[in-house]
Design the sequence.
């Protein structure tokens, strides 16, 4: 099949390479010209796709990147994989989805399967995509992406894929396409079910992470180790699922998607109380971390040299979107400390660059990538570990 993927970020490039590897002819469309040049030169910008993977599909001519929207014409399948962020009021911002939809409307004039993989609230495919594209008899399906960047065990091929279509023909075509590179396809009764399942999955994580974050604070105040309690609870073989406390949540998904669910909940008159409270707890974690660091240093860190280790939102990825490290750094500076950060994967961030791990009075480990020099971290005067992976130091 001739496939066009709109958006060549974490999701779009992953699907593009998966589909190209299955023998489809894939064009990855993105508005970012620099990214297109980089991709066509065989350089991947995401952790899950290696340069070698990309070079393979370029060499056998099954993949090409382009910033020319006319490449969308004549596609059998068009996949939308664009950002779905929050606006300044933390409401859904569907402007990227609308822009992608308008491009389809303008360029795809013969019937195709239009699939939305961008995460959004139930009703998006039907009301924000299909109704905006008039005059061509397209098929429409929703297949929310579940990629977990950096996860070596679960990828596009072996993570079960949900599909909901506006018509049985759309479901059949979507099954044919995804079945060519995904092991397991799960058909649900409507696109709304598929859309809702995706945001509920991430809401489930957000709420449970908030619960363990709150519990970590209770345990510390009680003078017991929250992590030891969680490990003990996790020995129960049924009815319990472990989550880890941390400095807050980051990335494009967990801090964002639940607010899409809260938005539609409010529209239908149901207060999304868990989501609101979970947001509050998670967003307050950087302040809790800094409070503990100050307390661990005799009540003041004024004038201290502090190094924040790991500024991406999770280990072994370079993604700094919504990272709690930003608030941790800012709040430490508000306390009068001189704050630098170390993250070799990120390199540069917010106009600053990574610093070596040496000579700090205080190290605050927000994210720990494989291979980071733990001995050098431990050589700092005081260490606060948010990851629960460094023995014998303070932390959550
Ligand atoms: N990153 C993840 O782990 C993940 C996992 C599952 C689902 N999702 C969801 O998938 C969607 C995409 O996320 P992502 O992480 O791939 O985003 P991303 O920011 O990595 O990539 C999006 C790409 O879309 C491009 N783009 C924006 N508007 C465009 C347009 N009109 N036409 C063409 N290209 C356009 C951007 O230039 C960018 O390269 C979001 O809805 C996200 O919530 C992300």
Sequence:
């Amino acid at each position: 099949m001739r496939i066009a993927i709109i958006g060549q970020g974490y999701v779009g490039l992953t699907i593009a390479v998966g589909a190209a590897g299955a023998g489809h002819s894939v064009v990855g469309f993105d508005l970012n010209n620099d990214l297109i040049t980089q991709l066509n030169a065989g350089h991947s910008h995401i952790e899950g796709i290696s340069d070698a993977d990309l070079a393979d599909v370029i060499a056998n001519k099954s993949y090409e990147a382009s910033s020319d929207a006319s490449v969308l014409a004549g596609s059998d399948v068009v996949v939308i994989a664009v950002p779905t962020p929050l606006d300044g009021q933390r409401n859904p911002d569907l402007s990227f989805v609308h822009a992608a939809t308008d491009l389809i409307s303008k360029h795809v004039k013969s019937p195709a399967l239009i699939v939305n993989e961008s995460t959004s609230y139930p009703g998006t495919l039907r009301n924000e995509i299909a109704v905006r594209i008039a005059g061509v008899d397209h098929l429409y399906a929703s297949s929310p992406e579940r990629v977990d960047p950096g996860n070596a065990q679960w990828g596009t091929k072996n993570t079960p894929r949900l599909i909901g279509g506006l018509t049985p023909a759309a479901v059949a075509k979507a099954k044919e396409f995804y079945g060519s590179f995904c092991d397991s396809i799960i058909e649900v009764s409507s696109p709304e079910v598929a859309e809702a399942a995706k945001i509920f999955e991430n809401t489930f994580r957000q709420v449970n992470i908030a619960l363990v974050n709150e519990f970590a604070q209770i345990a510390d105040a009680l003078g017991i180790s929250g992590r030891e309690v969680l490990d003990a609870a996790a020995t129960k073989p049924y009815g319990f699922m472990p989550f880890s406390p941390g400095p807050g949540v980051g990335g494009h998904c967990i801090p964002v998607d639940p607010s899409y669910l809260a938005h539609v909940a409010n529209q239908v008159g149901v207060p999304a109380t868990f989501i609101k409270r979970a947001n509050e707890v998670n967003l307050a974690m950087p302040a809790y971390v800094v409070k503990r660091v100050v307390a661990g240093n005799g009540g003041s860190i004024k004038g201290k040299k502090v190094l924040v280790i790991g500024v991406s939102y999770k280990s072994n990825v370079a993604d700094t979107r919504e990272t709690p490290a930003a608030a941790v750094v800012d709040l430490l500076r508000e306390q009068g400390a001189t704050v630098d950060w170390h993250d070799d994967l990120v390199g540069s961030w917010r106009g600053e660059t990574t610093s070596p791990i040496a000579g700090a009075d205080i190290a605050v480990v927000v994210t720990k990538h494989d291979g980071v020099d733990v001995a050098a971290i431990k050589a700092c005067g005081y260490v606060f570990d948010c990851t629960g992976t460094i023995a014998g130091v303070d932390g959550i």
